[in-house]
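Suppose you are handed only these lines of text.
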Amino acid sequence: MKEKVIIVGGGISGLTAGIYAQRSGFDVLIFEKCATPGGVSTCWKRKGYMFEGGVHWLNGSGSDLDLHKVWREVGALQDNNPIYFKDPVYVLKNGKADLAIYRDAERTLKELSAYSPQDRKALRSIFRDVKMFRYFQSPVEGETRILDYIRMFPAILITPRLWMQSIKYYLSRIKDDDVRTLMEAVVAPVNNAMTFAYTLSGFFTGDSGYPSGGSLRMALNMADTFVKAGGQIRYNTAVEKVVDGGVYVNGELMKADAVIVTVDARTAIDKLFEKPLQDGWARRMRKLLVTSQTVFVGVGVEADLNHYPKSIVFKVPFRDGGVDVPFFVVSNYARDHYSPEGCTTVTALFPGYSYDWWKAAKEDGTYEAKKEAMAKRFIGILEEQIPETKGKIAVVDVATPITYQRYCDTYEGSYMSDWMPFTLTTNAPNRYRRGLYFAGQRTAYSGGLPPAVISGRLAVRLLCKDYGHKFTKE
Ligand SMILES: Cc1cc2nc3c(=O)[nH]c(=O)nc-3n(C[C@H](O)[C@H](O)[C@H](O)COP(=O)(O)OP(=O)(O)OC[C@H]3O[C@@H](n4cnc5c(N)ncnc54)[C@H](O)[C@@H]3O)c2cc1C
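From them, the structure of the protein bound to flavin-adenine dinucleotide can be written out as follows.
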């Protein structure tokens, strides 16, 4: 008889673990709290407009990368969601002139240096660091070979220096406000500078595209792959407790030989076990963790904005909704089948620690009014910057850290693991003991989709080792 594996959570890490475990000869059941797969990586529809509330770029888009092979193995990327590559990647409006980051490093460097000759030297030095990352890729256990690590050596060499400083600090040597703002738009400036160099390098080397159909298509593809392999998913079903020998669901013990927990580990250590976990790593996680949060604002516009760039940096301060940012990025989904004919879905993410602010609003009964006020402020700026949108807003949606917490139970409503300087020490182990594994947010370094898929895969490799199964990729 096949051993039974229960997976807690049907986000990207849970689906990944499910697919590999099922293929490797286990009998797998996923419990997912929400009605759809994908966890925080998802899209939703309002009055005919589709909002992308997850992936904005996908590491592993480049077909020669190990991570790309993994996305294909788990069925996330198929013929139904070809990747497209925005170029320019970002355009800054309302500076002295339009300023852009292109897919071409030389062109970008040349144009930025021409725009701000005083920053030529600083830009050259930054682009040198970025170039060091041209062969860097997220290592995948069992796939990334010695030769790959040798090619990654220049990046590995400078990583400690970049890891120890924030992007804000790293870019502070750029004097021109427009150029600095454009560069800061690549990754939220509180994160460490390595993530900036890696991400920017990805734009220049054919990585970091966007799969058409976005997060939801990727997640549905993965869920479909899992079910076709023989696995089962129960949606709208939250696991209450993980115990020796299984999990409790609706007060009933569901027996399993092994359990893989893919819920945000910071939530799991306090809530999912009979007693909160007190291991050294769990105590460190409680003490040291700084969470990354964002507020999502999306609008449906009854106008075709296809002549505008796909990602526009608005150099306009935004102080509302518990955030205080000097600029923000607007994503333009014109002609991407995200909206009715001739219309456009427009979204923006506002990073910053806003959880307490929204929690207080929830408690004092002003939450809905504050969401409305934030949307109104956003629309005011949008109408000023893109006059075609004036009076054309058909639908509005705001998702706060409270939303992410309510749906996916991420700690303080965080939207991914943190990428801040000095964060290596706060991860949960992938193997806790024989029969209990962790994957997903806060179990692999860095944040986003790569650690989700890589840790889901790794948890199953460890599971296979413990139970004497051959890890089966396809
Ligand atoms: C707005 C936004 C933009 C993003 N942009 C990018 C990007 O451009 N690139 C990138 O790489 N990453 C991006 N990310 C981050 C990325 O989506 C996440 O890091 C990744 O999806 C996390 O996956 P996960 O499986 O580890 O966690 P989760 O998605 O949190 O999955 C955990 C799952 O467990 C479920 N669950 C929770 N509690 C229980 C329970 N008790 N019982 C059963 N199920 C439970 C949850 O509902 C959820 O489905 C973005 C995220 C957001 C929100």
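What can we learn from it? Residues 294-408 form one domain. The first helix runs from residue 12 to 23.
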